[in-house]
Specification:
The chain is mainly α. Helix content is 65%, strand content 0%. Helix 2 packs across helix 3. The longest helix is centred in the last third of the chain and has 25 residues.
């Protein structure tokens, strides 16, 4: 059986800067061996869904702005850097960067957490379209949408871990 320490070391960063998700999943006894992306995701997503509103908001706020200051300064986690680069967010024109900055600012002011989207398979136009659409959501709709995106990001990260990438 995988030890708690090894499990948290391997999967603690799957939910951005939120190792408590992996810790609680392990402690709940829902981690079934042999480990797979699907079973680990199911256990961790269940913990995320049952966390308090404040804890879930903390997970949302742990995510960086898309094409934001952390990306520019090199302060993203390796997973976030790769994900944003894969969508072309590291190669924005000055105008595109200005639009992302404008949307990031408006979004955080409205919702109190950064815009979160699983960028794998998307390009910058797809992301801008989703950004412009979702900014019109109610606070409740957007909290749930962002939470679902966090779970999708976690699933994609787990699939990459299990595939050895």
């Amino acid at each position: 059986m995988t030890s708690r320490e090894d499990f948290v070391a391997r999967f603690g960063g799957v939910f951005e800067h939120s190792p408590f998700i992996a810790e609680r999943a392990y402690d709940a006894g829902t981690i079934i061996e042999p480990l797979s992306a699907a079973t680990v995701h199911a256990a961790m997503a269940a913990v995320f869904r049952t966390a308090s509103h404040e804890e879930r908001l903390g997970v949302l706020n742990a995510h960086p702005d898309l094409a934001g200051r952390l990306a520019i300064s090199g302060g993203l986690t390796e997973d976030s850097r790769k994900e944003q680069a894969g969508a072309g967010l590291d190669r924005l024109s000055a105008e595109e960067h200005a639009r992302f900055t404008e949307l990031n600012t408006a979004y955080v002011e409205k919702f109190g957490f950064p815009f979160i989207i699983a960028v794998k398979g998307l390009n910058k136009q797809d992301i801008l379209h989703a950004f412009e659409h979702r900014i019109g959501n109610s606070a409740e709709q957007e909290f749930e949408t962002a939470a679902l995106q966090v779970e999708k990001i976690a699933r994609l990260r787990l699939e990459a871990l299990f595939a050895g990438h």
